[in-house]
What we know:
The complex is a heterodimer.
Chain A: H1 3-20, E1 26-34, H2 41-52, E2 61-67, E3 70-73, E4 79-81, E5 97-101, E6 105-112
Parallel strand pairs in A: 1-2
Antiparallel strand pairs in A: 1-6, 3-4, 3-5
Chain B: E1 5-12, H1 15-31, E2 34-40, H2 46-57, E3 63-69, H3 74-80, E4 85-90, H4 99-109, E5 116-120, E6 137-143, H5 150-153, H6 155-160, E7 163-167, H7 179-189, E8 194-197, H8 206-221
Parallel strand pairs in B: 2-5, 2-6, 3-4, 3-5, 6-7, 7-8
Amino acid sequence: MHELGVIIEVVKYVEDFAKKNKLTKIDTLVLQIGELSAMIPRYIEACYPAAVDGTMLQDTKLKIEILPANAICKECSNVFNVIQNDKVCPNCKSEVWELLCGKEFMIKEIVAY
Amino acid sequence: MNTYKIIEIKESVFSNNDRQADLLREELKNKKTFLLNLMSSPGSGKTTTVLRTIEALKDEMKIGVMEADIDSDVDASLVAKTGAKVIQLHTGGMCHLDADMTKQGIDALEADGLDLVILENVGNLVCPAEFDTGSSKNAMILSVPEGDDKPLKYPLMFSVVDVLLINKIDAMCIFDFDIEKVKERVKKLNPNIKVIPISAKTGEGFDEWIDWLKKEVKAWKE
Lengths: 113, 222
């Protein structure tokens, strides 16, 4: 369970960003989490209130966008979701592919006043 | 009056850790100190392997050890008996070490003048693989009783390490462990990985492991 430690780093980063850019209120924080990331969105949501408590993000809403675990097949160039297809290209059944996305854990944007 | 704006940040949360890891690597390069990040499950024989490694190298290198555990100092007190410099890091419940914690450990160890520092990471095959510690090379131990299916279950760990030690091969005869299957599975994940079967108990395979380590330490100093 490492989500709390990581989300505290996120909050620190956003507070810093807000100070540097002279923002007074952050309405929404948008994170992007890949399906293959080691971060579990449900746990991020669960520990978010504890991480923002007493910070300028205390009333900031959290929004999480999930990025699919997509890969491109090296044999036939088909793009497919590796989780849904059990790591096998549904088009040509090849197991040789390159991951395009799905491991991200990003601060995408903030909505601020 | 609602003049809000959307500000794009697009910052990877791990990029901060990656930056700190690169800084630490550069610092260690200047100090000519090689940092080995050693990872494995609990009970795979990390500490026994570390003890035997120190024994084999202590006449030709100055060695330091950082023991990372959630609690206790049982490993550190064992290692201290070898005469190597050792510190115990408590992660306080965290399941992995990041670059910042590793940097604190290096500072506390006063690593100046050490040729080799071994970081015994928290026993865990999951998140230690996600966080760059700033190490020069990554190694992992898979022990025979854990089973040959581990590369299938924890693929990331096997894909980030430079060398895989297969430990407890002296117990191979009582387990259904297919070493060829392990090699095949890890090479698929990581074609450049070096696989060395060892027994930290009997010393079998240690010549190859010590050779690898010596060569890497020497290359780091050049």
